[in-house]
Amino acid sequence: MKRKFRVYPLIMTILTYLPIAVVVIYSFNESRLSSQWGGFSLKWYRELARDRDIMNALVNSLILGALSSIFAAVLATSAALGMKKASLPLKNAAEKVALAPLIIPEIVLGMVFLSFFSLLGLPFGMVTLVIAHTAFCVPYIYMQVKARLAVLEEGFTEAARDLGANGPQAFFTVTLPLLAPAILSGMFLSFAMSFDDVIISIFVTGVSVNTLPIRVYTALKTGVTPEINALCTVMLAVTVLCYLLAALARSLSKRK
Questions:
Q1: pTM
Q2: What is the pLDDT of residues 133-162, one digit of tens each?
Q3: Which residues on adjacent β-strands are paired with residue 29?
Q4: Contact 120, 204 (CB under 8 A)
Q5: How far apart are CA 173 and CA 161, in angstroms?
Q6: What is the DSSP letter of 171?
Q7: For 51-255, CATH number?
Q8: Domain segments of the chain: what residues?
Q9: What are residue 40's DSSP bridge partners?
Q10: Residue 161: exposed, middle, or buried by beta-carbon count in 10 A (0-12, 13-18, 19+)?
Q11: 163 pLDDT band (50/70/90 cuts)?
């Protein structure tokens, strides 16, 4: 039984990461045919750099991820601080509602945002993308900040008040620096989620705005090419980097 329990995780790891490894390896394939290895080459990455549509989609994805994570950080931090000080009878229920986007299927969220923005008459484009992405990024930062607040002592803020600091001064000089690693960790996670999102983005984007995940999705309709493999590898590298930075921020938070 012990041997079987050791084999199962190995099998699941292979099934999960082997397709990813194949995509990464064949992004360096000289040949256009995925079934034939033509030697190591950076040809398809150079093709990506020359493709204006892909470069525009990359810029849009970076702007979208940055704006969404910043706005979500402000909302999530404010919510976490408010919920800690609030004494509401439905406090737990309110927190569960705030975390609902984590469990609601993305296709349902996309349809909800589509209907909501249509009802408001908002033109679909970068504005609707930022609003939608901010909404589903808030829970990732909220959980990080809430966990950080649970281990912070109120004595730090009270000591700042005793030394003459007012509310805003105590927040920006004491509370915010202590929360900064948790906020950064949540922002990196939310950036990764926004950068990789395709389902919600398809529902709320406009005809003039394209992101990298949507570009990959539309390109796959005509077949997988080495250029798409290279694009997926770049997206994977950005996502892994965000998770590593988030882990680094969490480690800094624990040290503090």
A1: 0.80
A2: 999 889 889 888 888 887 776 666 666 666
A3: 40
A4: no
A5: 11
A6: I
A7: 1.10.3720.10
A8: 1-41, 51-255
A9: 29
A10: middle
A11: low
